[in-house]
Write a structure and sequence with these properties.
This protein starts with a helix and ends with a helix. The strands form 2 sheets. It has an 8-stranded mixed β-sheet with strand order 1-10-12-11-13-16-14-15, with helices on both faces. Strands 3-2-9-5-6-7-8-4 form an 8-stranded mixed β-sheet. Helix 1 packs antiparallel against helix 14, helix 2 runs antiparallel to helix 9 and helix 9 packs across helix 14. The chain is elongated and about 75 Å long. Helices cover about 40% and strands about 25% of the residues.
Length: about 475
Amino acid sequence: MKKLIILVYLSACIGFAQNADEKQLKSVYSTSLTNGQSYAWLDHLSNEIGGRLSGSSNAAKAVQYTKAELEKLGLDKVWLQEVMVPKWERGDAEEGYILTNSGKIEVPICALGGSVATKSGGVEAEIIEVKGIDDLKNLGKDKIQGKIVFYNRPMQADLISTFEAYGGCVDQRYAGAKEALKYGAVGVVVRSMNLRLDDYPHTGSMGYEDVAVADRIPAAAISTNGAELLSKQLQKNPKTKFGFSMFCKQYADVKSHNVIGEITGSEFPNEIIIVGGHLDSWDLGDGSHDDGAGVVQSMEVLRLMKQTGYKPKRTIRVVLFMNEENGLRGGRKYAEVAKKKGEKHIFALESDAGGFTPRGFSFDCSPENFAQVESWKALFKPYLIHYFEKGGSGADIGPLKDDQIVLAGLRPDSQRYFDHHHASNDTFDAVNKRELELGAATMTSLVYLFDKYGTVKEKKIKG
């Protein structure tokens, strides 16, 4: 009889906790969808400030704007964390063209981030098509020297995970120039990382590693339509020439900042939960999806907690990282300072996959912590959040990884993300207000649950 009473009591306690959690999540979603602030913040970031490339005046404006907005929320603390970042400028608009027997055919191109400029007057040479870096060795220096290498491996269309498709071909963008110059190439042109056919070239970071500046070759992205046209022309005439001009320039590193704000925990103030996105963006569009959406959603997490009257047990901190796109300096700096201070981070959540409809989360954690996460799935089911998978979190929170912290990434529907990623059409009009607000509420809900219940290992130690 006594055992039965205990079981009934425990069942009642569990039911009460579930009801309280359901009530809190409903309050969060309702507040975000009817009285949200994320869309207005994004409007200002995108339309009043614009693209926020690290080291630029726009990036500095974004730092000051987000700091001021966090201060308006009445947080317990808001501050700037200094970080040195690269400064690279695109310069005048790039020009690219295919030379045919009937004349020039202009195609949309853009410089890859970190590329050197072309020499005065541009580069014009025969172009050779490859499907990836491995093809260079097979062709050899005799067939490549003095030519432009055209990397034309598309994203794999039959992969449902578009991020997996992106990862399968991004090496040609990042390392393509470094590898091609080993065989005497005079430049590289890379097919844009984009699943659809359009006229938008997509930039992104590339690197030369230890190659001397004088030996570096220019690297450009070509739109997917341009890549298709160029490939067809090469099939007709393997001796086809390509020409392009770029005017970019690399400067010395400059000072910038991560923007940080926090609500101090009421019971365990030394246990820190962070939520964040990266404040910098590429310069072609205004960076609304990548990663203005993640920035404003992360800010909204703390606002929603205050608006719904929730008082966190642990310290909840928003971190707006600088320089994710071309260096990850902000994420590394934050982790470095946290380690020096001996801060204890138990959970970190990043939003850097666009402002589309949220589907769930990916987690980098122990099996025990993932089991706890899975026990919360029913709470998210009314909001059609079903994706809870192990594997991956976010680039900026990655440096915090140790054997205790749980890392997670918001996973929105990604099918249209790479239509905009790093391109001039990554603009405010491409973001849906309701989808953005659903993502902010979803993030807040997960942060709430980790704040309330902690992590599994943590509970064992205290138990």
